[in-house]
Design a protein that fits this description.
Largest sheet: 12 strands, mixed
Distance between the termini: 11 Å
CATH class of the largest domain: Mainly Beta
Strand content: over 45%
Number of helices: 3
CATH superfamily of the largest domain: Nucleic acid-binding proteins
CATH architecture of the largest domain: Beta Barrel
Length: 203
């Protein structure tokens, strides 16, 4: 069996945006959401959602501010009808106070579960959309949207569904406008922006 830390690893360092708020209960445990602001080299901030167990709340309070987080990228389907259909969060395994620079690092190993789609942005940059299925400990899989740019995007366009991929990059948030029955709504999408990606042999 694969080591999950080798197939799905997220490391973030940043600043919480407000206190944790209750999310849900599952199997006798309470879970909380905590938005974390992580600054890119460009100065733009990504607002990323952390999911943490109640037992980690004292560590958040004791930190007094900035946090270093290690965990896994999780996805779930939103059946409420409002907002994006696929929601991504970082499930926190470890958490500690942090005084250093912001950090945003993602490492994934999974299976391509949709045909890659090459397109161009309004500014003419080439980008390929990927959907990666990554195994989870409980036998389920997380479906994680990823993007590649430039030369990597052109190479990714030729990968086949079912191909095993290893990918490194960062988790980013992106606002977009969607037309709904109620009018235009501003929503936030989350995706992994890949700096490296390569096909690996099937198991």
């Amino acid at each position: 069996m694969e080591n999950i830390s080798e197939t799905n690893l997220v490391q973030l360092c940043g600043s919480p945006e407000g206190p944790p708020r209750y999310s849900h209960s599952s199997r006798g445990q309470d879970f909380f959401l905590l938005p974390l602001r992580v600054r890119r080299l460009s100065g733009v901030e990504d607002r990323l959602n952390l999911t943490l167990r109640r037992e980690l709340l004292p560590a958040v309070e004791a930190s007094g501010g900035r946090l270093a987080v290690k965990g896994e990228l999780r996805s779930f389907n939103n059946h409420k009808g409002a907002g994006p259909k696929l929601v991504l969060t970082v499930f926190v395994r470890e958490l500690e106070p942090w005084e250093g620079e912001d950090l945003n690092r993602v490492r994934l190993l999974g299976t391509l579960c949709r045909p890659p789609k090459l397109r161009s942005t309004p500014l003419g940059r080439e980008i390929t959309d990927l959907m990666l299925a990554v195994n989870r400990r409980c036998g389920r899989s997380d479906y994680l949207p990823c993007i590649c740019w430039g030369a990597l995007a052109r190479r990714a366009e030729h990968w086949d569904t079912g191909q095993r991929l290893q990918l490194e990059g960062r988790l980013q948030s992106r606002e977009y406008t969607k037309l709904t029955d109620a009018g235009y709504e501003t929503r936030t999408a989350y995706e992994v922006s890949a700096s490296e990606a390569e096909a690996v042999p099937l198991l």
